[in-house]
Amino acid sequence: TQDLLTALRGCSSASAGPRMWRALWIVPLTLQSSEGLLSQSVPSSWISRSRSFSPLPSTSLLKRFAVSTEEELGVADKQSSMSRPLVSATFDSGNILVTDIVEDGDEIVFRLRIRPDPFTEHTDRRQHMQWFHFQAVNVQGQKCRFVIENIAECSYAAGFQNYKVAASYDRDEWFRVPSELRNASPFQQVARVNSDAMPASAAPEKPKELHLEWTLVPEQASISFAYFTPYSYERHMGVIAELAASPAMQHEVIGTTLDGRTMDMLVTGAGPLQIWMGARQHPGESMAEWFAEGFLRRLADPHDPKAKALLRIATVRVIPNMNPDGSVRGHLRTNAAGANLNREWWGGIYGDYEAPTLERSPEVYHVMKQLEEHGCDAYIDVHGDEIIEANFFAGAEGIPGWTEDMQNTFDHFSKAYVDASPDFQIGLGYGKTPPGRANLSICCNAVAAKFGCLAVTLEQPFKDASPPQDPKYGWSAPRAMRLGAAMVDALLDTRELLEAQKSLE
Description:
It is a single chain. This protein folds into three domains: 2-79; 82-226, Immunoglobulin-like (Sandwich); 233-503, 3-Layer(aba) Sandwich (Aminopeptidase), CATH 3.40.630. The protein is built from 13 helices and 17 strands. The protein has helices at residues 2-10, 18-41, 44-50, 59-73, 233-244, 287-299, 305-313, 324-329, 362-374, 404-420, 443-451, 477-493, 495-503; strands at residues 86-88, 97-104, 107-113, 133-137, 144-148, 164-168, 175-178, 180-182, 211-216, 222-226, 249-256, 262-269, 273-279, 314-319, 378-385, 392-394, 454-461. Strand 6 (164-168) and strand 7 form a beta hairpin. Helix 1 (2-10) crosses helix 2 (18-41) and helix 1 (2-10) packs across helix 4. Residues 12-79 and 193-203 have low confidence and may be disordered. The active site is at 459 (proton donor/acceptor).
């Protein structure tokens, strides 16, 4: 495969002539075993073109072409391909396609494209994309310019204005690198609306081309970049196992996903109030699972007096990753079938489309069954927002049957969270949905309408929380965990209103 990649890179010029088709003959032979690596390392158009070559020549002929191509390029006498700058995204949550890697004066230019999610039928009727996560290797001490070329096609392109890329050498500490959005002058920044998806007719006109660019000289041989600090499936499994070993916490598998992964739920407490948290319906919003981990770790602390007090009055159920398939696949908003899970909580909203179902959205189906079995007095649905630089709640004010008591509980809960964390605020957000206009296919609205309870969508920024801001790290995994831990205080402070609401059931 390395020989193949070397040959293909040597054919990038228009003058490559016969060398190009010789290299393309090689591709089908290796596609079955190496397509993942190829798709991250060479232009995708080359791979798609290669599939049109038929019939395949003999294996011996292919080998001769590979050797002659390498000799023509003089690769054998030059540096090994192992020392050339490369890009890889063939790992958990990886997402990037390589268009080209070229030298331009004193810098190496990486031309890249974000790979879209599967098409979302019935509800969104589009392909989402925005999440990226990749590693550049063999780059130490070299000036590198990274260019993501298909930003105009992204779901929330305005989110890349004033955005800093997350970067890491050790995949543990993630710092921020300033970026620039090119060709953005006619593009107006707009906030997402409370429906969590702006209708196409209301979306601002975007330039046909938008590029996100950043430049740096890596201090080490390899460096990773991501839209936000990733939360790996390996960490997910490790945290579940660690917390499940606590005598006060129980691990339940409530179902499986389309890819066969478990839907993990942690349960703790023995009180009558039924409090729920679901995180990361949209897999690219990895800060949501960091938030959930912070919340869970505080609940598991046997020496925390407020956590102990909450668990005396409530039973808490947490699904830390609602969309493990999309998380591993590197999607922004969808599961393995292309379903936007936060549009799968109520059927009949989009014509005759029924949701949730085991065939398309088993993740929501299984959680809804648990809700119906145990009841719900409060639900926190944890997300991330690409544009707004703040942590905030989106409420369920637009549902049928919204009452003054429900509004008072929501307002009290919001103020209690402001008191509990300096990173939470109530000034910025989506605004209120008009009465009776709530989209019931969204989790927060569906749960509030079905159970008559407090239900909120907790949004965190991909950029930074203002104020306070952190120029080096921006909004980060540690800050998300601290915000999650502070949720214990806000829930405990809202105890009396939740109990009064429960008494009316």
